[in-house]
C-alpha cells in the first residue's frame, strides 16, 4: 500500500513510518518539524539525542534499501497538502500531525488558539484533500481516550446504544474532554464523522491511550534511528516521566491522590495497531472508532510499579503527591472497552517488570541530558 504518515518525525509517527516501511509498504512522511520548535520554545529536548529527519530516512535507506519520501510542510497549508496528495495518491493516510500536549494547550489563550487551529484546520484540510483527490483513501486518524473523559459508566468503542422515551438508537459516545487539546480531538472526530456521512469517506478514529516506551525493533537498529523521548512537565507523559524521574533521582511526581485511571499501551503496540487499521480499512461512508490501548492503570499504580522496579535495580525512588496542576477527578470509576483491535489480531505487549526494567535501564544511559528544572509541571488549569 502507499501510505502517508503525517507527523512522521514525532514519537509515535517515526517508529510507525519505519514499521510500515519494513512491512513492504511504500511510505512517505509529512512533517512541519514544529515539534522540534516547541522544544526550543520550552527550553527542553528529547532525552534521547534525535537526528534530523533527513539523516534518519537516509540511514534507514542505507540499512534496508527502503526509501521513505519526506515532505516538509504544514498540514494547515492546504496548497502544500493538496500537492503532496496529488503526487503520492495514498491508499491510506495516517494522521499523527497535531499538537498533542494538554499542558501546552492550557498555557494561555494563544497556545489554546494555536492548538485548536493547528489540529482542527489540519484535519479539515485533510478531509477536503481526500474528498477532492483520493476519495477512496482510508484516513487513519489519531484521537485520544481523553475525548471520553471519565464517566461513571463503562466507556464503549465510539458508540453507545441509548433507549429514550421508548425509542432506541446507537449514538456517538458522549465526550467530556479535559483540556483545550482534548477538545481539539473531539472537534476533529465530529468533522471526520460528518465527512464520512456526507461524502462517503472512509475513516478510522483511533482513540489512543497514553503511550509508553521508546524503542521498537526498527528504531533499535541504529543510533541514528532512535526515537524521541519526553520527560518535561509539558510534553512528558505518565510512566515515561516516572521512569526518567527515577533514573535521575527526582521524586516521582504523582498529581494529587493519583487515583486518575487511564488506558496505556506500549509504543510497539501503537505501530502494530496502525498496521491492523491499514490492513482492514473502514468501509466507504463508515466512521469507525477503535479504543487503542491495552491495559488500565491508575497513576499511583504506575508510580508504585516504577518505584519497585527501580529499587530492585538499586535506584532509590520516592513517590511525591504534589498539588494537582490540572482540574480532574482524582478518584473515579474507569472501565473502557478495547476489544476491536484485539479481534483484528493485536497481541498486546503488556507492562511487566521486565518491560519497565528495560525502559529504565535505557533512560539511565541518557540521564545526563535531563534538565532538572523542567521536570516539575508549571502549567495550571
Ligand atoms: P509528537 O509531538 O511527538 O509528534 C507529532 C508530530 O506532528 C511532530 O513531529 C510535529 O512536528 C508534527 N506536526 C504537528 N503539527 C503539524 C502540522 N500542522 N503539520 C505538519 N506536522 C505537524 O506527538 P506523538 O506523541 O507522536 O503523538 C502523535 C499523535 O498521537 C497526536 O495526534 C496525539 O494526539 C496522538 N496521541 C499520542 C499519545 C501519546 O501518549 N504520545 C496518546 C494519545 C494520542
UniProtKB/TrEMBL annotation:
Gene3D superfamilies in the cross-refs: NAD(P)-binding Rossmann-like Domain, UDP-galactose 4-epimerase, domain 1
Record-annotated NAD-dependent epimerase/dehydratase domain positions: 3-291
Family stated for the protein in its record: Belongs to the NAD(P)-dependent epimerase/dehydratase family.
Name the record gives this protein: NAD-dependent dehydratase
